[in-house]
Design brief:
The relative contact order is 0.17. The protein has ten helices and ten strands. The protein is of the alpha/beta class and 264 residues long. The protein has one domain (22-262): Rossmann fold, CATH 3.40.50.300. The strands form two sheets. Strands 6-7-8-3-9-10 form a six-stranded mixed β-sheet, sandwiched between helices. The chain has a four-stranded antiparallel β-sheet with strand order 2-1-4-5, covered by helices on one side. The longest helix has 14 residues, at 132-145. It has helices at 2-7, 62-69, 94-98, 116-126, 132-145, 161-173, 194-206, 218-224, 242-247, 252-259; strands at residues 22-33, 36-47, 51-55, 77-82, 85-86, 101-104, 179-183, 211-214, 227-232, 235-240. Helix 7 links the parallel strand 7 (179-183) and strand 8 (211-214).
């Protein structure tokens, strides 16, 4: 029965949808820490309105890719393109690149001495010089979309972990980024709070956001992602639809990986 399942062809109804132009292109990227090659000639892309999930065991390179895309780490070889911009070019304006990317990490990184509203509007006001009324109007619209407008004047320590992470996502969306990076955003949450954050990400996907997410939430990745990129020992081991990669893998090592998560 297991062999029949793996050999089963993908039906037309599960064919990959067609997306727009490439928002992110990672081309033959190498990253080393000392003698350890963490990213070994990695290549994949993310298209407009597409959600791509990076999966892999701990240490496979998921977070390193995120840091390279957000310019927190420099690559040793290869290129990363954001639209038509080679963001690995040392001459680029890093602040302008980061303004085009929204990032949410494992930790919420909200300023404890600021209200929710001030946390969400800070970058727009201080970096992009938006007037306060314009920034607050935009922020309240985002908070309203997730049912948290009544928390606008609260401080982070009055919120649950799930609420704090949703605020962090709103902050990342303030400048309408071309690309949203979500790096293990549920790993620091109580399991009971994970669902509300994943629900919000699902809503963003349906609204047309372009998302690259690293996650250990296999079920969510299967249901929410348009494409799965599976990393193994710093290389791309699989790149395909959730059905191709997770439901009907042909590689024995890939089967074993997902079997550990009860996906195969």
């Amino acid at each position: 029965m297991a062999d029949e399942k793996h050999d089963r062809p993908i039906s037309a109804e599960h064919a990959a949808p067609v997306f727009g132009e490439k928002v992110l292109r990672i081309d033959n990227v190498v990253k080393r820490f000392g003698d350890n090659t963490v990213l070994d000639h990695i290549s994949f892309d993310v298209r407009k309105h597409e959600t791509v999930a990076l999966l892999g065991a701990s240490g496979s390179g998921k977070s390193t890719i995120m840091k390279c895309v957000n310019l927190l780490e420099r690559v040793d070889d290869g290129q990363i393109w954001l639209g038509a911009t080679d963001i690995t070019d040392p001459r680029i304006d890093q602040d302008k690149v980061r303004a085009r990317i929204g990032v949410v990490f494992q930790q919420f990184n909200l300023f404890s001495h600021m209200t929710v509203l001030n946390n969400v509007t800070l970058s727009a006001r201080k970096v992009h010089k938006w007037p306060r009324d314009k920034a607050e109007e935009k922020a309240m619209g985002l908070l309203r979309r997730i049912g948290m407008e009544r928390k606008a004047k609260e401080y982070p320590d009055r919120l649950s972990g799930g609420q704090q992470q949703r605020v962090a996502i709103c902050r990342a969306l303030m400048m309408e980024p071309e690309l949203l990076l979500l790096d293990e955003i549920t790993s620091a949450l109580d399991p009971l709070l994970v669902g509300e954050v994943l629900e919000m990400v699902g809503e963003l996907k349906h609204q047309g956001a372009t998302i690259l997410m690293a996650t250990h939430e296999m079920g969510f990745a299967h249901d929410a992602a348009d494409r799965i990129v599976l990393l193994r020992r710093g290389k791309v081991a699989e790149n395909g639809s959730p059905e191709e990669v997770m439901d009907y893998p042909t590689d024995p090592e890939t089967r074993r990986f997902f079997a550990a998560y009860n996906r195969v």
